[in-house]
Amino acid sequence: MANSADILWFKTHFGPRIAQAVQGTVFDVDRLTAIACQETGELWGTMRRKPNLTPDRIAALCCGDTLDADKGRRAFPRTKDDLVAPTVRDGQRMFEIARAALLAMAEHVPAYAFAKTNKRKFAHGFGVFQYDLQFFLTNPAYFLNRDYEDFDKSLARALGELRTGLKTLGLQNRTAITDLEFCKVAICYNTGRFDPSRGLKQGHSDNGKFYGEFIRDFLALSRTVAAPGAPATVPATPGRTDVPPQEDFQATGPLFQVDTLVNALRLRSAARISTPPEANVVAELPDGLMVRSVTGTPVNGFIEVEALLGGKRFRGFASAKFLKAISGAQGARLEGIAARAAAAATIPEASLAHPAGLVTKRSAIAGAHALNEPAMPRRTSVDPAGLRDELAKIIAFLATDNPAHKRYRPRDGLTFCNIYAHDYCMLAGAYLPRVWWTQPALLKIAAGESLTARLGNTVDEVRANDLFRWLRDFGQNFGWRRAASPSELQDHANRGGVGLIVARRKQDGRSGHIVAVVPETATETAKRDGAGKVTMPLQSQAGTVNFRYGRSTPDWWKDARFAESAFWLHA
What confidence score (pLDDT) does residue 391 get? Predict the structure, then answer.
């Protein structure tokens, strides 16, 4: 499997040619590199270490896929007999070319040494981007003329197939696509179709991991690799994945200010109140928040607006009677106040120091201290597969469902979702407080004082409702970003990132709830609807019921018990 060093070699030698070929398309060097990694990375990743092979010769040797009918191949030719049948024009000649191509590659890739003694074996896939031999029946010249040996011709063929994938998904008229959409296009490239309900678990499967998932991982890794003369799209940081940049308004309509004087204003996906009222809520807008309208014209008593929450742009419909028009000068003043507040945000993390000899264990009833057991798992990888594996080890280590772990076990009417969320985030390298500064302490910090965290003096314990407010008020300063949907949150977790769902109870004395959204595995998955939308993300929690992996109940965060909810993600 291709690694960062392999990708650097590939980009160094072929990146400029790819960059020229993808001009004016929705594709880029990283996306085509991901396809090349999945299709033939095991070949050129091995051959690049051979001192006597030039990059173009390596590209010419990239032929593989020897599966016959007995190993599951369904497309033509299923066996040698299919290819050399009298009804197949130039079939024997094609077999000889395919056999010779396989043997030439096998001279340099030990994994294919078996082909030398099995005289019925021949290559089914040709070129760096693997054009399948099933197309010999409709495009024989490409194979007979050995066009696949030319990197540029192989690239052109791949781009043509990817454009077909765009059409399959109805994306052919787009001027840009997301990386997740590209993964779906890649699945079409591999299979010719896409089933939205299966997400990225489609295409060729290897030990429970699917083509779409491989492309996602290779693309994320490729984005961290800087080729000579070009910066990496996403700098590689051990133990981190990327997070979306902070967004800004796209709408150009008049400015408004949320004016309820009572509570948050619901932003809805349609200009109507749903049944139940929480069903079509996409976000809650704090009283006093400045929003920008799309046109400013009310529709059914609602105005379509954009709001910036936690670095994320949300768009939807808000009740017109709770929106107060403001002038451009007032808007500039509000934006200036927000910018100065963000620039001045230098509040340090709060955590209690452990007294000498104190070890806070999972097996003990929870207090205000963080875990400090020896040899706790952490995230240190830079690639998605490694990050996911490390998150899985963290979940297994914390093991909320283990009766011996009293730290998370519900007791006396108390539950400990906040403590599990803190522990999970801490081990993953994302700061989520177990204790936080008191209001007097925050005033002293703002005045320039340096304080020590002391329980009941400068810091207090935080619970789920407090974490909702902390993420809203301070989360951005500690690397947290809002997500707009369970789909976005699950995709981020699947790339090895940290995700949370948090909901605040209407009755402040009652417990809110917070859960981690975690990477899908071969056996534990999120639930998607027919359009591919995640309806039940894969979660891990402590609560009334503790589980390492589960889907919980649909839209639990929209339950009438909760005043507001939010999705958050961290690198």
Answer: 98
Using a 10 angstrom Cβ sphere, with 0-12 exposed, 13-18 middle and 19 or more buried, the burial of residue 343 is exposed
β-pair partners for 131: 126
Positive or negative: CA dihedral 365, 499, 496, 493: positive
Residues 6+ apart with CB under 8 A from 205: 211
pLDDT tens, 30-48? 999 999 999 999 999 999 9
Closest among 329, 323, 327 to 306, alpha carbons compared: 323
Report whether 29 contacts 158 (CB < 8 A): no
Residue 229 confidence class, pLDDT cut points 50, 70, 90:
confident
d(CA 419, CA 172): 47
Read off the DSSP letter of residue 354. Answer: P
DSSP 521: -
**Burial letters 259-273, b for 16+ CB under 10 A, else e:** ebeeebbbbbeebeb
CB 563 within 8 A of CB 263: yes
pTM of the model: 0.90
Can you tell me which residue has the tokens 């014209």? 297
Pairing, β 209-210 against β 255-258: unpaired
Radius of gyration of the chain (CA): 28
Contact by Cβ (8 Å): 563, 264? yes
* DSSP for residue 204: S
pLDDT at 344 over 60: no
Separation between Cα atoms, residue 296 and residue 320, nearest integer Å:
9
According to DSSP, residue 312 is labeled: E
What angle, rounded to 10 degrees, do the helices at 211-222 and 29-47 form?
Answer: 100
pLDDT in tens, 462-496: 999 999 999 999 999 999 999 999 999 999 999 99
**How far is 193 from 205, CA to CA, in rounded Å?**
15
Comparing 220-234, 339-353, 505-519, which segment has the lowest mean pLDDT?
A: 339-353
Can you say whether residue 296 is alpha, beta or left, with left for phi > 0 and alpha for psi between -120 and 50 degrees?
left
DSSP structure class, residue 414: B
Is residue 48 within 8 A of residue 58, CB to CB? The reply is yes
Which contacts (CB < 8 Å, 24+ apart) does range 106-112 have? 108/46, 108/47, 108/50, 108/53, 108/61, 109/42, 109/43, 109/46, 109/47, 110/46, 111/42, 111/46, 112/64, 112/66
What percent of the chain stands above pLDDT 70?
98
The residue with tokens 């791949």 is 158
